Description:
alpha+beta; 5-stranded antiparallel beta sheet
Amino acid sequence: MNQYEIFRDPYRMLILLATLVSEKQHEPALQFDNVPYFENDLFLIQRDKFFYKKDATEITWFEFLGRDIACNKDLSREAYNKMFVDCLASLYNIA
Length: 95
């Protein structure tokens, strides 16, 4: 499987998404070595993986969020931004 580096901005959006998932699940704070499990119809996030179901985009990391982070697709910043905005909206059931 091909692995592509991701830009810093999408990485920050992934951290924001993981932080909001933690808050939604009443976790004290995001732990980068223990990203909480969450899944809905659009995406899955867990300890070492994010999966966007709409187009099968998978972002993985090793041991803690940000270490050896890679994506299975070579996406543009715009594509990452659209994906994460879509996920954030789905987290709060915003159409």
